[in-house]
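new request in #modeling-help
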Amino acid sequence: MASEQMNGAEMVIKSLVDQGVEVIFGYPGGAVLPIYDALFQQNNIEHILVRQEGGAVHAAEGYARSTGKIGVVLVTSGPGATNAVTGLTDALMDSIPIVCLTGQVPTHLIGNDAFQEADTTGITRPCTKHNYLVKDIQDLPRIMHEAFYVAQTGRPGPVVIDLPKDILQGKSDCYIPPEDVKHRSYKPQVDAEPSKIEQAVKLIAAAKRPVFYTGGGVINAGDRGSELLTRFVRKLGVPCTNTLMGLGSYPASDPQFIGMLGMHGTYEANLAMYNCDLMINIGARFDDRVTGRLDEFSPNSTKIHVDIDPSSINKNVMVDLPIIGDAARVLEAMMTAWDEGDYQLDQKALKSWWAQIEEWRAKDCLAYTQKGKLIKPQYAIQRLYELTKDRDTYITTEVGQHQMWAAQYFKFEEPKRWMTSGGLGTMGYGLPAAMGVQRAHRDSLVIDVAGEASILMNIQELSCIAQYNLPVKVFIVNNQWMGMVRQWQELLHGARYSESYSASLPDFVKLAESFGMVGIRCEDAADLDDKIMEMIDTPRPVVFDCAVTQDENVFPMIPSGAAHYEMLLGPDDKAQRPISEEGMVLV
Amino acid sequence: MSPRETNIEKRTIAVLVDNEPGVLARVIGLFSGRGYNIESLTVSEVDQLKNFSRITVVTSGTPQILEQIKAQLDRLVPVHRISDLTNEGPAVDRELALVKVAGTGEKRVESLRIADIFRASVVDSSHDHFVFEMTGKSDKLDVFIDLMQPLGLVDVSRTGVVAISRGPKGL
Ligand SMILES: Cc1ncc(C[n+]2csc(CCOP(=O)(O)OP(=O)(O)O)c2C)c(N)n1
Ligand SMILES: [Mg+2]
């Protein structure tokens, strides 16, 4: 049955509405003016006008990660699309569902180097899960709905739809609703084979030193993923560590939580990984930031790897039992199998495993001393956590030392509260991401934990925050250095601090005020709590410039190319163990 | 286990894809982007009604890399099915070559004689050249081309490998 006549732009909007989209993040330009015109004439979808297209994608990522919904982006052709590339890559690396609509020159001009033409599908092919160029209006509704399906099915990711202007202006009655679109080829496996579940629970029952290592896959599996993980781990009484992406998938205040693992993970988490006899990886991908030196990675353990993406299996680390499936469904099946089989863990072995872990934990690897007036960055972040933990708080970050400290000192009790650029490590992510989070959760406390260098990468978005009066709090841990770069230069490059000083910083208070926001500066540890409270109690956007000591390094640290047991615990550790040449070439 | 194993194997992989713009670029981009080898790649539409194309890739790598290649191909959105023809039972693989040899006299006669032995057919000729067409396994083509080298080999064009599993079952 034919639908009513619509032009392509109206069809785009209709598809978005039918997909349940309530907000899109975008920036106009010639090629997408028909869509902006259609937006103008409707009230279902709100448009948030960012200040640079890169910000739009990060905002959509923040929105998606904090809600579990798909983030939608609208940008123009050429520079609009190329500006979106970093965000798309970021979303691909962190498996965030995004649908990004890009304008394109009219079909008859494609390939002619027309004004604001870019080969958007060519450029974005390696940084999207999939992309489309719509060449016929008849395909438009199918492609719109397919894009939503592809973005959120299986391992989520960004999908680009490139929309030539003539398609947007053409008219047709070919619109079809989402229910009528079935994808021809893309049907990822979500349920594991029952035999594998049986094998998994048998391995767990036989383990003496098991550890759960869980990542973003649990969070992407929806709230049930974390719920089931928590129930299962508690039932078993075994330790659980999270990746940077997985923070919040297991409640951090639970005694069975042993902290984040990896390069800046806790001593107990990394040593548990090294010494375990059974590793149960759920929705994590053995990233090099987690494994450290591969040939020394957990050498004596049996490894179970649950992942929805078969290409994650045996990519970096060979595992003994791969299980393809959705984390929540696999966890549910495992729990059922565990209960039905009436399995028991060896309690004596578990007890001595915990005794060992407690010994490691007693090292208190995140300890630091805050003395006097100067604020240690760790202290700043820990106070921020303590003063916000009982509130409805969402945290985004930029990239650098402050990001790692936030990961270490914040305790996330539930999923979707922590938004950080993990895979790509994109400076400039946090501010626009916070915008997207705040738009989704208007009454919540949304804080971007920032570095003074990173924040300048997308500082223009303060204008967007001001326009929509999104009460985002930007908490700048201002060490006047690209701290993480400085740290590597200190440890790996003979303390030659090449181009890592943050010179000519703005007066962040005045900057905030110039956007009509509140600026707060804190330089004295004694004032910190009061000023943080002032920030929290301000019902408007705030930029908080927190001056911290300049030469602090993030510890613990597994230097690149080192094994888990070769962790540096503090500044006095570093001298003894020079970093290998092999490690030097690693990023 | 270290990923730096040294046992390199060769595989022929068949990929059934939607015949849509960009699908070949996606496959090639996957190989170049992740540093995998392509020894040969062929593609053509095989089912007009269902709009399927079939890509045959000959690649090489360690067993771990080869598993990665298959998993990476399989997760491309327009890919319907993949099959590791080398590993999943016996398969037939063939390649076609067009080989141009120019010369006169004894060399010319000799080239024709060898072509005959290899069951290559002459598809174009003049007094001083032949174009041979030859179908067979790639290594047989290699030998033929090598033999033509001293006899006035001018040009070679090869299709790359196409392959199909033996027995009644389809992809
Ligand atoms: C877009 C981008 N460019 C460069 C880098 C490399 N890099 C990683 S951390 C860092 C310094 C960050 O400095 P700052 O924001 O002040 O954070 P700090 O480490 O001082 O807490 C740089 C340059 C990056 N991650 N992203
Ligand atoms: Mg800094």
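bot summary: Chain B has a mean pLDDT of 95.
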